[in-house]
Task: structure prediction
Amino acid sequence: MTVKKLQNFIGGKYQSPISEGVSDVIDPSTEQVYAHAPVSSAADVDHAYKVAAKAFETWSQTTPSERQLALFRIADALEARAEEAADVESQNTGKPRTTLVDYEIGPSVDQIRFFAGAARNLEGRATAEYLRDHTSSIRREPIGVIGQVTPWNYPLNMAVWKFAPAIAAGNTIVLKPSDTTPASTLLLAEIASEFLPEGVFNVVTGDRDTGRAMIENHIPQMVSITGSVRAGMEVAKTASSDLKRVHLELGGKAPVIVFADADFQKAAEGIVAAGFFNAGQDCTAATRLLVQESGYDDFMTALIAEVKKSAKVGMPSEPDILFGPVNNANQLARAQGFIDRLPDHAKIETGGSRILGSGYFFEPTVLSGLKQTDEHIQDEIFGPVMTVQKFTDDAQALEWANDIRYGLASSVWTSNHTRAMRFAKYLDFGTVWVNTHIPLAAEMPHGGFKHSGYGKDLSHYGFEDYTRIKHVMHYIGN
Result:
């Protein structure tokens, strides 16, 4: 297999980095190196930011209609190259090739189009006299150059969540993808470059040191990261020294509360899909189940049967699989470590082992008998591992659901409308799904509370995060 040589994408073209460091990019389904990517230095990052700052001088002066048209054209071009993008993303991540166009590339196209529309829907208070003889108005302006860092679980889709609202608002960006999955982000920048001025959308690849340089640089006025809690805390601390704006979408540990009056078969089907899709590597994955004691045995029977029926794992090219490998060797070791440290009071209901020899494949796994204080309940596993706890009543379900440091997403499965509305109020999570789990709409916000970060992705709220507000007042008296 020919090993590709990737480059940074700066100023509308691929560029060789200033630094000489490179990293191996590994296909997680084979463990084979398929590309080499630059490990960009602080000098490379600074160069990209300077190019973006120069581009901001003119891009920030474009009209919303001009930015909208550019984004519509980018969306159309990505849609036209959806099969190519899916091929790149499948090798990039090990995801099933057959589902990528419908479940990731298609939604990415839709989200770009949403932000194209948002560009022409800036909001603010009405121009009026809030003080006698003075007329006030609101300007909503781009912030400047934005530094962005994306994760390896949804490389292309997360790049869309970052670049589209930022560029729609008139900002320019420098984006660093994960060092394990740079290829699809570079393709996205290449596609976008046909419709954007040079320097509006820049990509640098690299490791943690590159990411640190992205945050420490003095040029960006805002930094946005989707990643781990640890990374988010480091970003917030570093950015605070320069008073940069910070936008953080971090980890999650979504409670999935199943009551005895739920439709167990439909619940099992939805939860297995939402828990094991993308090998459980999703901050909102349905992997922490709380099941009412009076229906526990019947639900567990339905759940295990559905896991064995639907949670098929295999090579990305195979049809009818739900998920492929986890993304990298470290993540495989992390999932296995949780199994190895399983306490004596817990039980493996199904799965629990690495499979298929080569590649980072792990069985769909269901654990029971865990206590609320166990690390398997409190910490994000980020793999195809689902835990099930037994609760007695509404109060205990709500207490356990909220008793974690994360606050990103949750779901309630019940036929009792009053209970569903009550839990929607009291669950301390940025999203509450009722009788479903994981669907997203571009029009609705995605973002969490507590250690899951702050700021919103998607929706008009996500768009507004990339703008600043200015008050203009005129004296109109005689």
